[in-house]
Design brief:
Elements lengths: L6 H11 L2 H19 L4 E11 L5 H13 L1 H8 L2 H11 L5 H5 L2 E5 L5 E8 L2 H22 L3 E7 L5 E2 L3 H24 L7 H7 L16
Antiparallel strand pairs: 1-3, 1-4, 1-5, 2-3
Helix pairs in contact: 1-8, 2-8, 5-7
Length: 221
Amino acid sequence: MRQVITVNSFLRGLKKMWSLLIIIPVLLILVTSVSTLWAKPIYTSSTQVLVTTTAQKDEMQSFEGVRTSIQLSNTFSTTLASARTMQGVIDKYKLNITPSDLAKKVTVSSGENSLVYTITVTDRDPSKIKELTNGIAEVSQKDFTKLFSSTKMVVLEKASTPVEASNLIKYVLAGLFGIVLAFVLIILQASYDNTIRQKIAIDELGITFLGDMPFIKGDKE
């Protein structure tokens, strides 16, 4: 029968099953580690681009142009990872992939009120990832002048050499999930613990209480 969980019952369960807080996370981390060894590694490559205004007649116009560009920074970021850009890369390299699938491999990030964008591509094929990263920057550079008047894109850094993505996040998530799972098991054990420890539990069951016998711990001979 399921019982109401109290702090004392939870602490008793925690004291009895504390080892689960170590065993389950370690097991999940080991499983994640083994699966990572068997799986093909994921590589990443990044490039940086700057969206800026074209030359203006005077300084005030240039300032207004920069302010307008900052206001459009989210639009620029979305455009860099848009289906239009992905289709341009697919056509450029004759890729057998859909724009939506290619977009899943692309991440665009920038600082607050910044017009410098970092384009990161992840893929399991290190021989193509650098080409894809540079291709996105090149296609966007040509396309931006058509989409946004008085703006241009400058490639600040070419695509970096592909590096294997870190698996640290996977291990951390596996450990956290293991700890949560251990706590769930401890709570379930406490909620279904039918051991009678107090007289009030007997009264709730409608059983007549006749008396108790104290436990006296003696010396072992």
